[in-house]
């Protein structure tokens, strides 16, 4: 068993670390305050190859492994989780979904643009009445021969306003329940496709979250992904990998908050000494460090499972469940270690605490991860 990172992985880590420090850190507080999408930063991430990291180079991707991807996700998330969620959705939901299950024509037309960052993607499963209960899809796609007619509402869609291409899950044969669901590629600007206002959020405020409405949108049949009725499996299989990306995001938020708290504890003095010399603070740092290391092992194991061709449904869910709890706990403690300064924007940790919460909600809440894990455990 080898726990060390390869030379290549270290180079990727350093590149992402430098990018986060030089390009994401300046302006991160302002983007959060103003809910400003990181347009320039996303463009640069596309140029660096961060938006299609695991995609085959023949479609414009980086041809990298999942370990590289989680390393980049951790480094970006240490500084700006609003930016890293764009990376996560584009890589592990949209690009992966298309590369694994799209046909050659779909890959040529859409994947190449997405993998190079010329276009941004969105993944549209959630609805007002179908979040955790994802089989209860009410958006309909009626088969009209050479096309489908799409009607319904998707909500909470990340990259909702900025995306060019949308993977939309919809019900075609209601009587077949989850076996009657399909996944489609929908382009921005198609008649009847409306983008609602941007959500005003607690955290990841720079990311772009919208409700989408589909009113008799004509979707050509060639834009259906996979066989008729494959849409729910498509969503579940794609999300299994997506959860590894969000676990890495949670790990990064935790590690970023911990780094700031440790440095602060070495310079802030009370009662004649640096606060790290008070055992209450030193023990907090010890607990944070242990939990972050444990989370990192789970994230790496899930990424390794994916790279090895093992089933990663459970290891991805375990990594997300644990790392998101660590992100929440660590960021709360980081605010505590900063005292009053932790409560103001200038010191970053209050933003990290707000950003941490979403990792327990999206791509399956913590309760849903426990359903996935327990079903996996109890399956014979
Ligand atoms: N891989 C392949 N197939 C899977 C699967 C997986 N990981 N998980 C389930 N399935 C299949 C099942 O085998 C079953 O098919 P068969 O009947 O052919 O066997 C079918 O899907 C239905 O499965 P269940 O009976 O288990 O379905 P369920 O209604 O009990 O729900 C669930 C299961 C795991 C709770 C699922 O609904 C779920 O994951 N909910 C959470 C939804 C979610 O994560 N949404 C995230 C939206 S995207 C997002 O959030 C992005 C972002 O923020 C950035
Ligand atoms: P509900 O399903 O209504 O759950 C409410 C509560 O009940 C939760 O605590 C949940 O864990 C619990 N619960 C529900 N069912 C059970 C059960 N069986 N057992 C135990 N507890 C249960 N979706 C997309 O499709 N694409 C995106 O890009 C996307 N981006 C998002 C970005 C943001 C900022 C947010 C907030 C959400 C995003 N989502 C996206 C939606 C997200 O995936 C859902 O919010 C999430 O899956 C939970 O669904 P819900 O909000 O409907 O909560």
UniProtKB/TrEMBL annotation:
<dbReference type="InterPro" id="IPR037069">
    <property type="entry name" value="AcylCoA_DH/ox_N_sf"/>
</dbReference>
<feature type="domain" description="Acyl-CoA oxidase/dehydrogenase middle">
    <location>
        <begin position="122"/>
        <end position="217"/>
    </location>
</feature>
<dbReference type="GO" id="GO:0003995">
    <property type="term" value="F:acyl-CoA dehydrogenase activity"/>
</dbReference>
<dbReference type="Pfam" id="PF02771">
    <property type="entry name" value="Acyl-CoA_dh_N"/>
</dbReference>
<comment type="similarity">
    <text>Belongs to the acyl-CoA dehydrogenase family.</text>
</comment>
<dbReference type="InterPro" id="IPR046373">
    <property type="entry name" value="Acyl-CoA_Oxase/DH_mid-dom_sf"/>
</dbReference>
<dbReference type="InterPro" id="IPR006091">
    <property type="entry name" value="Acyl-CoA_Oxase/DH_mid-dom"/>
</dbReference>
<keyword id="KW-0560">Oxidoreductase</keyword>
<dbReference type="InterPro" id="IPR009100">
    <property type="entry name" value="AcylCoA_DH/oxidase_NM_dom_sf"/>
</dbReference>
<keyword id="KW-0274">FAD</keyword>
<dbReference type="InterPro" id="IPR009075">
    <property type="entry name" value="AcylCo_DH/oxidase_C"/>
</dbReference>
<protein>
    <recommendedName>
        <fullName>Cyclohex-1-ene-1-carbonyl-CoA dehydrogenase</fullName>
        <ecNumber>1.3.8.10</ecNumber>
    </recommendedName>
</protein>
<feature type="domain" description="Acyl-CoA dehydrogenase/oxidase N-terminal">
    <location>
        <begin position="6"/>
        <end position="118"/>
    </location>
</feature>
<dbReference type="Pfam" id="PF02770">
    <property type="entry name" value="Acyl-CoA_dh_M"/>
</dbReference>
<dbReference type="InterPro" id="IPR013786">
    <property type="entry name" value="AcylCoA_DH/ox_N"/>
</dbReference>
<dbReference type="InterPro" id="IPR006089">
    <property type="entry name" value="Acyl-CoA_DH_CS"/>
</dbReference>
<keyword id="KW-0285">Flavoprotein</keyword>
<dbReference type="Pfam" id="PF00441">
    <property type="entry name" value="Acyl-CoA_dh_1"/>
</dbReference>
<feature type="domain" description="Acyl-CoA dehydrogenase/oxidase C-terminal">
    <location>
        <begin position="231"/>
        <end position="378"/>
    </location>
</feature>
<dbReference type="InterPro" id="IPR036250">
    <property type="entry name" value="AcylCo_DH-like_C"/>
</dbReference>
<dbReference type="GO" id="GO:0050660">
    <property type="term" value="F:flavin adenine dinucleotide binding"/>
</dbReference>
């Amino acid at each position: 068993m080898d726990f060390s990172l390869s030379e290549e992985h270290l180079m990727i880590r350093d590149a992402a670390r430098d990018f986060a420090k030089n390009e994401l850190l300046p302006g991160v507080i302002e983007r959060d305050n103003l809910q400003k999408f990181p347009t320039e930063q996303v463009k640069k991430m596309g140029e660096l190859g961060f938006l299609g990291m695991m995609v085959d180079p023949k479609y414009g991707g980086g041809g990298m492994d999942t370990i590289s991807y989680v390393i980049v996700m951790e480094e970006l998330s240490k500084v700006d989780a609003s930016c890293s969620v764009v990376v996560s959705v584009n890589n592990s939901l949209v690009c992966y979904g298309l590369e694994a299950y799209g046909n050659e024509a779909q890959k040529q037309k859409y994947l190449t643009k997405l993998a190079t960052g010329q276009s941004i993607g969105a993944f549209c499963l959630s609805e007002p009445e179908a979040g955790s209960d994802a089989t209860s899809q009410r958006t309909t796609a009626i088969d009209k021969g050479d096309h489908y007619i799409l009607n319904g509402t998707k909500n909470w869609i990340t990259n909702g306003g900025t995306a060019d291409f949308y993977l939309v899950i919809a019900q075609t044969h209601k009587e077949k329940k989850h076996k009657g669901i399909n996944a489609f590629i929908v382009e921005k600007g198609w008649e009847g496709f409306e983008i609602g206002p941007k959500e005003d959020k607690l955290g990841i405020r720079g990311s772009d979250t919208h409700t989408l409405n589909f009113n008799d949108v004509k979707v050509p049949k060639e834009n259906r992904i996979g066989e008729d009725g494959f849409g729910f499996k498509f969503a579940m299989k794609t999300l299994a990998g997506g959860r590894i990306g969000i676990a890495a995001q949670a790990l990064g938020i935790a590690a970023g908050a911990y780094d700031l708290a440790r440095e602060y504890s070495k310079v802030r003095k009370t009662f004649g000494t640096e606060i790290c010399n008070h055992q209450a603070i030193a023990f907090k740092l010890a607990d944070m460090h242990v939990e972050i290391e444990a989370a990192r092992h789970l994230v790496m194991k899930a990424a390794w499972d994916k790279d090895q061709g093992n089933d990663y449904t459970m290891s991805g869910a375990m990594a997300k469940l644990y790392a998101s709890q660590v992100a929440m706990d660590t960021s709360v403690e980081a605010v505590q270690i900063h005292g009053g300064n932790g409560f103001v924007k200038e010191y970053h940790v209050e933003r990290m605490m707000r950003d941490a919460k979403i990792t327990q909600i999206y791509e399956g809440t913590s309760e849903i991860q426990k359903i996935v894990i327990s079903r996996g455990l109890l399956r014979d």
